[in-house]
Amino acid sequence: MRYLIILLSTFYFLLSTVFAAAPDELKSSIEQKSKELENINKQIQENQQKLETVQGEKKTLQKEVSSVQNQIKQLNLGIKASEVNIEKLGLEIDSLQYNISDAEAQIVKKREAIAEILRQFQQKENESPLIAFLKNKTLSDGVFEAQSLADLGGNLNSEVNELNFFKDDLSVSLDKTTEKKQEREVENFTLKNKKSIADEIKKEKQVILEQTKNQEKIYQKQLSELEKQQQAISDEISELEDELRRTFDPSLLPSKRPGILAWPIKLVKDGGIGRITQHQGERSYLYRGKPHNGLDIGASIGTPVYAADDGIVEAADNNDKSYYRKYQYGKYVLIKHNNNMATLYAHLSKYVVARGTNVKRGELIGYSGNTGYSTGPHLHLGVYWAPSIQMKSIPPAAGLVPVGVIINPEDYL
After folding, report:
1. DSSP for 303-368, written as a single string
2. Does the pLDDT value for residue 15 go beyond 50?
C-alpha cells in the first residue's frame, strides 16, 4: 500500500510538471515567432525604403522590370509574415486554453471550499451565538468557539473573493481567445489575398515585357503616350473640381481636429509600417507642378487598408485598362460618411468590399498597391466634401473617376 501511495504521488507530481512546463514552452515558442515576425517586417521596411528612393528617378524599362521584381519580393516577404503570424496566433490561443483550463479548475475548487464552509455553518445554524458560547465548560472554550465561527466567516469571505477573481480571469481569457481567433481568421484571409496579388504582379511583369518586346525605345514611346493621356484626364478633373469648389461651404464640415478619421494604415511612429511620402498641396514633377490632391502613405504592396470611419461604400472600381495601360487611381474604394465627408483609398492592389456595403471604422477594405498612375507602392488617401462628389467616365481611363471638392486629410486624422 505504501509503495502504491508513493507511485501515485510520483505520477501526480510528473503530471503537474508536464502541465506546468507546457505554458513555458508555449511562451518560448511565441517569443521565437515574435522575433521571426519582427525580422521579416524589418526586411519589408528596408525593401520598401529602397523602392521609395527610386520613385523620383527617370523611368526605364529595366527599372520598371526591376521594380516589379522588388514588389514580388515584398509580397513574398508579406506572405511569409502572414504565415508566421498565423502560427504565432495559434500558439497564443493554445496558451490561453491553458489559462482557461486552470481558471475552470480553480473555480470548481473554490466552489467546493465554499460549499464545505456553508455546510459547517449549517450544522451550527440552530444555535444562537449566546448558546454556543455558554454550552462550553470553560470561558476559554467559549471564546474559542466564537473565534471558530468568526474564522469560518472570514474563510467564506476569502473564498468568495477568490472565486470572483478566477471568474474574472476566466472571462478575460475567453474574450482574448475569441479575439485571437478572429485575428487568425482575418490573417488567413489576408494570406489568401496576398497570394492572389502576387500572381497578379507576376502577370503584370510578363505583360510589360510582351507590350514593349523588351525594347527600351518602345517602352519610352508607350510611357510618353500614357503620360499625355493621364495629364489630359488630370486637367479635365481639375477644371471640374475648380467649378465645384465655388459652391463649397466649409461650415458644413466637422470642426478640424485629430481623430475624426482613423489612419487607414498605421504609421511607423505609431507602431505601424506606413510612411508619409507626400502631403496634400505639395507640388512635384508628377503633376506638372500642380498641388497634390491627397495624402500619400508609402506601404508595401499587400499592406491591409482599413476604413477611416463608418460609412457606405459609394464605389469600388478600377481605372486601369490593363496591366500596362494604367490610369488615375487604378483600383480604388470610395466611402461616404455621415458627417458630409467621404474618403478615397486609391492605387490598391485589391479591394475586398463592394458598392453599397456598410463598413465600420477600422474594417478591412483592401490592400495597398501600385495600380493607376503611380510611381511606386503606396496608398493615396483623399478626403472630399461628400455632397460635391460626381462620378465621371473620363476616357481613356476605365470605370468611373470620383470628382469633388478636396479637403486636407491631415486636418482630421
Report:
1. -EEE-SSSEEEEEEEE--SSSSS--TT-EEEEEE-TTSEEEEEEEEEEE---TT-EE-TT-EEEEE
2. no
Instruction: State how far the Cα of 350 lies from the Cα of 323, in Å rounded to an integer.
Output: 13
Regarding predicted confidence, which is higher, 367 or 25?
Answer: 367
Single-letter amino acid code for the residue at 380: H
> Which ranges of 124-138 does DSSP label H, i.e. alpha helix?
129-134
Mean pLDDT computed over 290-299 = 88
Helix H or strand E segment including 33: helix 2-53
Residue 360 CB neighbour total at 10 angstroms: 10
Per-domain boundaries in the chain: 20-197, 224-411
Asked whether 352 and 331 are in contact (CB, 8 A), the reply is: no
Q: Is 125 exposed, middle or buried (0-12, 13-18, 19+ CB in 10 A)?
A: exposed
CATH classification code of 224-411: 2.70.70.10
Q: What's phi and psi for 131, nearest 5 deg?
A: -65, -45
Tell me if residue 160 falls in helix, strand or coil: helix
Bridge partners of residue 341, in order along the sequence: 385
pLDDT in tens, 232-259: 998 888 888 888 888 888 888 899 999 9
- Range of lowest pLDDT (145-159, 171-185, 334-348): 145-159
CA-nearest of 42, 46, 181, 12 to 100 is 181
Range 20-197 has CATH code 1.10.287: yes
- % residues pLDDT > 90 (the chain): 46
